[in-house]
Amino acid sequence: MNESSDNSSRYAKPAPRAGVKRGRAPLLWVAVLVAVFAILFGIGLLPRLQTSKAIAETARDTLPVVTVVPAKRGSPATELSLPGTLQPFQETPVYARTNGYVKRWLVDIGAKVKAGQLLAEIETPEIDQELKQAIATRAQVKANLDLAKITADRWQVLLKDKAVAQQEVDEKFGALEARKADLAAAQASVERLQELQQFQHVVAPFDGVITARNVEVGWLINAGSSGPNNYLYKVAKTQILRLYVNVPQSHTRLIRPDMPADILIAEAPGKAFPGKVLRFSGALDPQSKTLLTEVQVPNEHGELLAGMYAQVRFKLTQAEPAILLPSSTLIVRATGPQVAAIQNNTVRVRKIILGRDFGQQIEVLSGVAENEMIVINPTDAMREGAQVKVAQSTPDKK
């Protein structure tokens, strides 16, 4: 029995080793399977990754390529030029104030006249006759007044002697007062006709120049005709001219009284006539959103003529200049002016408010931030959210 037990124990020792081999075999097979699956997955995934990368690169290559420019502000010192027409500082048509015929005229267009200078003379035969009649009527009324005064004085003496009644004396004094009123009315009629007779002489209302003559010898003059073409003369004060311009709302805060301005005319290239802002209206025009501004221009030497077309140039300093963009960045659609901005290769459409148009550049008052990248020559593909590829800008050799 001892031998058998020893033999059994001898043969029982290798058993644990076999158990160890059977426990490690599944783990080995699992590792092998995982490695095989990893190799197979890598073999199948790699082409897909390469295909996705190729598709992405192809998509990037097919995106529209755009050229951009940064939004920059203009110079603080700017010039504002506005059109206008030179006008006399004062101009008035001269009409006749009495009826008659033109006896003579003394000055013609272009003549410089002084205030009160005789321009023309009108013959007024009817007024002359009416004045003679009024003077005769005044003399008649004066005689009646004298008689009424003498009568009233006599009846006053008779009243003291109690030869007449008080009622009769009062009647005489009443008649005297009536004759005084008649004399005042006759005197007023004479003075009125004398004043009308003085209007036979047509004189200049102020110092100026004759800009129009509408009178000839023998013409019938009707004092009641005050139509636009029934004047005798037009007199204008041209020593000082005025010019009205409409300043846009964006520059109204920069305009102030006594601000200097340059007046430019095509007939004098390179020469600027000095002027200054005299006044401006206190409200904007509701239609054009502009401020009516009056500019005064000295013209002692007569180099400028009323009616000339001119440009008014203001030299302004802006605290925050507006943004300037190339005109080729503008998108015109039914919703209004727009530009296409680029953020992370994505199009962002910006609605803008335009200012002045400088030809190759436009002024943007709002809607675009400074240094924002704006697309040049945008196409119809420039829609909100569209993906684009920004072209690399070439360095400026200058």
Which features characterize this protein?
single chain, alpha+beta, conserved putative lor/sdh protein from methanococcus maripaludis s2 fold, six-stranded antiparallel beta barrel, 4 helices, 22 strands, elongated, disordered N terminus, disordered C terminus
Give an account of the 3D structure.
This protein is of the alpha+beta class. Among the domains are: 69 residues, Helix Hairpins; 80 residues, Beta Barrel (Elongation Factor Tu (Ef-tu), domain 3), CATH 2.40.30.170; 69 residues, conserved putative lor/sdh protein from methanococcus maripaludis s2 fold (Beta Barrel), CATH 2.40.420. It is 32% helix and 35% strand. It has 4 helices and 22 strands. It has a 6-stranded antiparallel barrel. A 4-stranded antiparallel sheet has the order 2-15-20-19, with no helix packed on it. Helix 3 runs antiparallel to helix 4. The longest helix has 48 residues. It is elongated, with a radius of gyration of 52 Å. The N terminus and C terminus are likely disordered.
Give a quick precis of the structure.
Helices cover 32% and strands 35% of the residues. The chain is α+β, with helices and mostly antiparallel strands and 398 residues long.
